[in-house]
Amino acid sequence: MSKTPIIIDCDPGHDDAIAILMAAASDKLDIKGITIVGGNQTLEKCLNNTLKFLSHLDLHIPVAAGAEGPLLRGLTVAPYAHGDSGMDGPQLPPATQKPVEMNAVQLMEKIVRESEQKVTLCPMGPLTNIAIFLRANPDLIEKIDKISLMGGTTLIGNRTPTSEFNIWEDPEAADIVFRSGIPLFMQGLDVTYQAGVNDDEIAQIRAIGNKYSTFVADLLDFFSKYHRNLGRMYTPLHDPCAVAYVIDPDMFTTEDHYVEIDMDGELTLGTTVTHNFGRCTHAPNCTVSLGIDREKFVKLLFDSLEILGRGGRYA
Amino acid sequence: MNKRPIIIDCDTGHDDAIALLLALGSPEVELKAVTTTAGNNVVDKTFHNTLKVLSHIGVTDIPVAKGAESFFFQPHKIADHVHGDSGLDGPELAEPSFGGVKLSAVELIEKTVRESAEKITLCPMGPLTNIATFVLSCPDLLPKIERISFMGGSAVGGNASPVAEFNTWQDPEAAQIVLKSGVPITMCSLDATFDAYITAEEKERFRQIGNKAGILTAELLDFFGKFHAKVGNKGAPMHDACAVAAVINPALFEMKRANVSMDLNGTFTRGCTTTDITGVTGRKQNCDVTFGVDREAFVELLYSAVKNLQ
Amino acid sequence: MHKIPVIIDTDPGIDDFFALAVAAASDKLDIRAITPVAGNQTYEKVCRNVENIRQLFRMDGVRIATGAKCPLVSAQRTAGNVHGEDGLGGVILPKAQQKAESTYAWDVIYEEAKRAQGRLQIAALGPLTNIAIAVLKYPDLPSMIDKLFVMGGTNGFGNVSPYAEFNIWADPHAADIVFCCGIKTVNMVGLNLTRQAILDIPEYRRVFSAAGDGPLGKIVTQLIDYLGTRAHGLGNTAMTLHDAIVTAAMSDDKLITYFPSYVRVECQSENAFGQTVVFAGNGNRVLEQGEPNVNVADTLDLERFKSTLSASLEKLKGRVAL
After folding, report:
1. What ipTM score was computed for the predicted complex, to two decimals?
2. Do A135 and C68 touch (CB under 8 A)?
3. Looking at residue A171, which CATH number applies to its domain?
4. Which of A235, B232, C131, C240 is the most buried (most CB within 10 A)?
């Protein structure tokens, strides 16, 4: 069976890093490139975080820097969740790897153009890079197999009462992506809050005992503090859902809906308005994940870290 | 001659005070009531300033009511950079010799309109909060409103934002309610009111009249003129007096019929009176908008009114 | 003297036709590329018009790139009521032998900017979609552009709504991105300026008599007659050639005066959608402003523009290819 070529577009970010590791461990996926976007923290910090952990874990994947901020709006970062560095927690030595001599959009272009198979995109930050890529390469849209993105919510937000951080950060970019016609799979807060790990499981991850699991446990020790303070039993692994859906969609329960982005609401900016009330006349443009087999998802994470520990991935 | 009954709704304010003098000294209009609103300053101060100005020239028999403290949706921002701390810095005025009525601004407008045999003209010269509340609460009285001649808005340019005039920018939702009320409207906009200014030489003519009103006018202009000189305006523009002047003699102004509707949700354009003079929007014309003023005739009108007073 | 390397981003469009004529006739401009963009008409139509105009004016060696077919975010709207179904008022130009190349406008702009080593000037005569994609894809591009001339916006009244001008209104998000991207000189030639060149039909005939009564003369007469008819239908007796002023200004610093201002584009409000908010505009008495990012065109030397138009047509009349 041939592997699915994917590009991960992200803003590491604790859960972004875990998503990359999950993808790296999967024999179903071939990560062709990682593109970075300003989001959880500034572009510079997110890029540095990515190169540091890839260097530390000896994973060699092309990394390119993308947009510093949203298409039209200023960047708002999320240090309350990810710390000042954007990936506080693990103590890592400086990066030895460097980004490629291309920007994010150019790297995506190259990968998609050269790929014989259609490519899957996994965005897990604001959709700025993806939107620029789509607008700059209308001829390559047909070579995108699908987009499985972490973002949005059908009910309750985490940045405002109704909007999720990634979509809220760059609603115009999200609008471009949601109207692109590309098969879209939305891993929003509806599902990602169910995809969490508890403290026992974090301890079990540490007990795996390789450098990958230690890194992930260090990430989760920090990341879980924020969520525990909010009274959550599970520390949500938002971004890994975007990857897990590509690896094993059967793990998820979904519904197809027409989803559009609010770009001008004073109170509702960045809301993924989901027409799920049964009277929508638009054809669905998005498969929305609403549930997940959590046990299976956590097992996938454990297995991924063990596989990585055996070495040989992206060497 | 039949005097046109008017009600002034103001946020006194230097040019508001001069608008009051213009109304009181002009035989063409009869000032039936004065209501005050938050605007240039908080309503307690604009109310107090109004009573002080009227007391100073010996007019104590006109009902004055205190109105809106705050706006429909947005917080109040005062213009003390233009009108000073008191909202009427400059002249030393004695404490008022009379108090206001025990009615709210809207109640006073309602009572005055209801009891009047003739149609009443409203002359708002602050944010339109009181007038909008009246429009919403007394739909049955709207046919008794002859016209609303308000100072506010702008077809091109602004003074509170690049595209918005201070009064409409302060309470855009109220302005929209008034604009959509169906009552005939004259919008005395910045396009003309900036040209209705008084020069330093003309100011001295007012002082030389020698009566209380003349000296008060000059002293108001002494203070008000400083701000306008600082920002490079030709003289001290009598924005608010235009709302009254346009009732006394509309021919002083170059008017264009237009649809005017408020911009309520622009990032950069909220508070702008979107003025469609070419009909490109297809919306119904609802306003006579001032695009120019015969300045010298305007100053003359004001001069004779002030001269008529104590 | 070295010629100025320029790219013309355009959506012909009758006034675009004259803008290209002025540029093609200029011995000060070295036209490196034309980048079509959907605007006055749909993309296929404006691209075909660009191809035909390139051949008509014998602009051999001028690249034509592939531009954006729709706005960045907003829905597409054209100006067929002004420029006709085909964008050129039904005037038939000889069909071009050579088609546009498949390289995208934004990639060509970047390539040419690098090649021009900081001297590239761009005339944007349509919606700013191509330019916006270029600066989004290549964040280092703004510092490589010497000047961007934009026909668009207004400091005052608009033409598609009370305050919005067509090109900016057609893609306001792109315009705001371009105005704020950091190009050191952005000259906004808006309606407040182009309306200073409103001429009536007899006046146009006088100016265009320089085109002679040969093939070029016939084409420009047809174009002007069409515009005149349209203007009449819209209740006007006179009109202006917005875009031609921009290409004339590229090689003539004395044609237009500007004032610097902070300018933003309204993208939220329905009433003011696509309005260029000029913070230091003529009517404004606002004290607080952002750093100037745009030079707003203010006054036009009309006689100078008319002679440029005449001279351009005179020069081209012997050169057109049929």
Report:
1. 0.86
2. yes
3. 3.90.245.10
4. C131
